[in-house]
Amino acid sequence: MKEKLLELKENFSKALESTSNTQQLKELENMYLGKKGLLKEILAGIKNLSNEDKKTIWVESNELKVFILKKLEWKSKEIEAQKFEEIVASEALDVTAEFPSKDLGHKHPITTATELLEDIFISLGFKIEDGPEIETDKLNFDMLNIPDNHPARDVWDTFWISDEINEDKELWEKYLLRTHTSPVQIRTMLKEELPIKIIVPGRVFRYEQEDARHTCNFYQLEWLVVGEGVTFGDLKWTLDTAMKSLLWEDTKTRFRPSIFPFTEPSAEVDVSCQICKGTGKIKEKKCSMCSATGWVELLGCGMVHPKVLTGCGIDPEKYSGFAFGMWIDRIAAQRFGVSSSRMFYQSKLKLNEQF
Ligand SMILES: [Zn+2]
Fold first, then answer.
1. Residue 238: CB atoms within 10 Å
2. How far is the CA of 341 from the centre of ligand 1 (A)?
């Protein structure tokens, strides 16, 4: 019987070596230690032995049982470890691996124009400010000297946030998609110390009839300077310097008197059209960018209205400022020679890939 136990141990050890998964381990355990297993089979003959031998065999068979269980456990751990190593190896990321490069795409012309403008103004000592695209009526209109009954409100056809959100609110607290980046001027004047020298690039929304120069969402860039002794001369100098850097050396500018609720005095600035070089014609056809006038309205500007300053807690007797608002889309169209800024929003790869 002793020999049988030894033989069983040897066979088990051999069988164990050839196992490679947990299923096989289970089968092996059943085969050797199960109710109808090989060990039980050997021990069935124990009743024929003397008491002395019975004792010895019991001890030896128990030792064998413990040996088998330990070996099974050890093998099970080994299989698990191996499985883990395989997963690590197969799922490992080789950060040094090289792949054939794909077309990565590039910046949209409006992004390129925005960054160009930011660089120019940063070099002039301006700081970039940002604000939310959803604003309240108060920040978008009231605090910019455009009260509820002001005729200028008609110019800005506004997208309002859904009635469910706005219905129980007073007009001044109702939400809308900002019609200009000017609310960021208010936010900055309310929180920052003077002097202020900022630019605000961002997306704005208007319920517009679309044509070559108008789209219902577009990008604006505003700039604002507030401090002691700021004059209209400073405004002109900043504009000339920025335009010279931004467009071409031969670009002409002209000021036209205008009216904005938030500036006084106000002006609109046109630049000579780069598309038709100020002639109003492209190959004997009317230039659509400038409506054949040779001039493109690029921005509005003026000295910040005393009421706007007062509303932000700034004394207009002591401080003054100027502000500009310009269309980045039109700048991009002029800069890149595109005849309609609307084309930037039409996902035309053939167009965008050129810049
Ligand atoms: Zn033109």
1. 19
2. 13
Q: Which CATH number fits domain 110-352: 3.40.640.10, 3.40.50.300, 3.20.20.80, 3.30.930.10?
A: 3.30.930.10
Q: Tens digit of pLDDT for each residue in 238-268? A: 888 888 788 777 778 889 999 888 999 999 9
Expressed in angstroms and rounded, the spacing between residue 352 Cα and the centre of ligand 1 is: 21
> What is the distance between the alpha carbons of residues 155 and 266, in angstroms, rounded to a whole number?
16
Cα–Cα distances in angstroms (integers) from residue 79 to residues 3, 44, 66, 76, 191, in the given order: 31, 33, 20, 5, 65
- Positive or negative, the CA dihedral 285, 291, 293, 299 is negative
Query: What's the 277 CA to ligand 1 centre distance in angstroms?
Result: 7
DSSP 160: B
CA of 257 to the centre of ligand 1 (A): 22
- Helix/strand/coil for 178: coil
Partners of 302 in the beta sheet? 266, 323
CA of 116 to the centre of ligand 1 (A): 22
CB atoms within 10 A of CB 91: 7
CA 351 to ligand 1 center in whole angstroms: 19
Between the CA of 241 and the centroid of ligand 1 the distance, in Å, is 23
Which of 163, 133, 162, 153 has its CA nearest to residue 262? 153
Residues lower than pLDDT 50 in the chain: none
Q: Report the distance separating Cα 285 and Cα 115, nearest Å.
A: 33
Domain residue limits, the chain: 2-91, 110-352
CA distance 282 to 150: 40
CA distance 267 to 258: 5
For residue 322, the CA-to-ligand 1 centroid distance in Å is 29
Q: Tell me, what's the pLDDT at 225?
A: 95
CA of 285 to the centre of ligand 1 (A): 10
Centre of ligand 1 from the C-alpha of residue 339, in Å: 8
pTM, two decimals, is: 0.64
Contact between 183 and 135 under an 8 Å Cβ cutoff? The reply is yes
pLDDT of the residue at 214: 72
